[in-house]
Design brief:
Blueprint lengths: L1 E5 L5 E4 L3 E5 L17 E9 L4 E7 L3 E8 L1 E6 L4 E5 L2 E6 L4 E7 L6 E8 L9 E6 L10 E5 L7 E2 L5 E7 L4 E5 L5 E14 L2 E3 L4 E5 L3 E18 L3
Parallel strand pairs: 13-14
Antiparallel strand pairs: 1-19, 2-3, 3-4, 4-11, 5-10, 6-9, 6-11, 7-8, 7-10, 9-12, 13-15, 15-20, 16-20, 17-18, 17-19, 17-20
Length: 237
């Protein structure tokens, strides 16, 4: 097994007043040639947006963009007819494809919104743009890695144009859980949203990340109650 560890405080930092963001990988004004992504995983932005503010209309193409609110509400609008609120406990995906224009605003006038914005490089270019949003409550079982994203429209969670699987779980202290990769040629980026876990001798605290590859599985020991997001992606694409 190969690993790469990224401490929470080693991430890129952006503070625009209305937006505070931590960048696991190179993004915007943060450029680190050793942090250009993990396989097909290109961006993990940990965003905080104050009430009434947000990202105005802007365009993307040929990228799978996933948003996961951690607290508060995220308002979404785009040029393919989607307008609404993404609430905490939901996951949203946009396939930018041959071009999409959208805005992501704080959906609340008083409360800040915290959310993860994740970009995955697709395996199909120039596709028709698409949008999908679901609640995760029905598929999240405690102390398990619950699939919330896959390449398959008929599977649990949302789907994207890439051989990638995301799983999320809330774990109690003392739990040990093993994750089996869907594809042994893939890697998994483990992102601790809160709490503390240990993965094959690596201790991960809140907002720490660990990439693992060249393995069929790994085991996670929960040292403090934790919320964990796993992102399994191709390492070559």
């Amino acid at each position: 097994m190969k690993t790469i560890y990224h401490a929470a405080d080693s991430r890129g930092d952006a503070n625009h007043g209305w937006l505070k963001s931590k960048h696991t990988f190179s993004f915007a004004n943060y450029h680190n040639p050793e942090r250009m992504g993990f396989g097909a995983l290109r961006v993990i932005n940990d965003d905080f947006v104050i009430a009434g503010q947000g990202f105005g209309k802007h365009s993307h193409r040929d990228m799978e963009i996933i948003s996961i609110p951690l607290s508060g509400k995220l308002g979404h609008g785009d040029n393919i007819g989607n307008n609404g609120i993404i609430e905490t406990g939901e996951i949203q995906v946009m396939s930018a494809g041959n071009g999409i224009t959208h805005s992501e605003m704080n959906g609340d006038d008083t409360e800040a919104v915290k959310f993860l914005q994740i970009w995955v490089i697709p395996n199909k270019m120039n596709v028709e743009p698409r949008y999908q949003q679901i609640r995760m409550d029905d598929i999240l079982k405690p102390n398990e890695f619950n699939q919330v994203l896959s390449p398959n429209a008929d599977d649990a969670g949302v789907w994207i144009h890439q051989d990638a699987w995301f799983s999320m779980g809330d774990f109690d202290k003392g739990i040990t859980q093993t994750y089996e990769l869907k594809n042994p040629n893939n890697g998994v980026y483990i992102f601790v949203i809160s709490g503390k876990v240990e993965v094959n001798g690596n201790t991960l605290d809140t907002r720490d990340g660990l990439g693992v590859w060249d393995t069929k599985n790994f085991t996670m020991d929960v040292e403090e109650d934790a919320k964990v997001l796993l992102m399994e992606v191709p390492m070559s694409f």
